[in-house]
Each structure stands twice: as C-alpha cells, then as structure tokens.
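subagent[fold] <- orchestrator: predict structure for attached chain, return tokens only, no commentary.
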Amino acid sequence: MDKYEAVIKLLMEAVKAESGTDEFRIPVGVSNRHVHLSQEDLDALFGQGYELTKMKELSQPGQYACKETVTVCGPKGAIEKVRILGPVRKQTQVEVLAADCFKLGKKSEPKMSGELAGTAGITLVGPKGSVQTKEGLIIAQRHIHMTPQDAVKFGVHDGQTVSIQAEGIRGGIFQHTAIRVTDTSSLECHLDTEEANAMGLGSSSTVTIVK
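subagent[fold] -> orchestrator:
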C-alpha cells in the first residue's frame, strides 16, 4: 500500500507541476516598426493642432495604433507607411527593425523606450511637412511589461534583465530581456517581428522566464 501511495503522490505532484507551468507563461506581443510623435512634430507633419485618429487599442493600457502613417527617410532609402502609435509623447521616438537600418543607411542599437540620449536622428515625412529629429531612432530592446504583483510572483524587479525561453520547433532562449514594472502594465513580453520570426512566435505564443 505504501508503494502505491508513493506512486500516486508522485503522479499528483507531476500533474500539479505541469498545470502550474501555465501560470508562469507570459503572452507574447509582436511589434513591427512604428513611430511615437511629440505634439510639436505631429503639428509639423500633419498640420497645426492635428489630433491622432485612434484605430485600434493595444494590449498596454492607454496605448493605441493610429490611422495615420509617416515615411521614415535615411541617407540610403525610405520606408513608407510606418504606423504612428498614440498618445503623443514628450519626445519623438522611431522604433525600427535591425534590417531597416541597412535600408535607411542609419546605425542603431537596441534601447529601452525613452532612452534616446546619444541615438541617431532621422527624417520623417507627413502629408503637411517633414521633420528632422536630432535623436530618437532605436531598435526596441525586448522586454516584459508587468505589474508589481507580477514581479513578486516571478521573483524579478524593474530594470532587471532575464533570459526567456520559447518552445516549439524553432524555439530557444533569448538573453538580455528587460523587466519593466508599472502599476498600469498588462503582462506581456514584447518582441519585434525579426525576433518573433526567428523563433516561430506569434500573437498567440507564450514564453517563460528562465533567468
């Protein structure tokens, strides 16, 4: 009887461990190139007093995709119809893919949103004018949005970098994934389209923190 009880206990622990893994899976959000505009640059590109047209709510509270697009221009080429995300920000930020830098003829490195000091400038063209930014061109560093409660659950803190694991035939581990903790965050791991494609991930995929 003791042998059977031990086997049942092991089976129950295995089932519990397996079911518990879902609790620690983090939804993936795949992000393409996009632009965040300051009000000053929005006015220059679309006309004085222009207001962005909300097209689709995004997963992070208060963020949304806009109907408006701009052309991003560099010394070697341009990328048309780059989506604007709202609301307006204090400073314009242009997030591109690594491959876009070759097309534009601009150098950029992975940076966290808002960390724009020392980054390259870029030209934006809209229907009413153009803007040459002094800085703001970045490749978005992969990161995980979460609340303070999520941070306690996962045993991490704001500003920490961790590794994440993706399952599947093209799965693997991404290092240097930043943790971003705010009271208004929705739990989600943000990857750009190049990163997601490399591991066969989509909007229905999940990853786990492996530190």
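orchestrator: received. Logging for downstream: Confidence is low (pLDDT under 50) at residues 11-20. Residues 24 and 208 are 6 Å apart (CA to CA).
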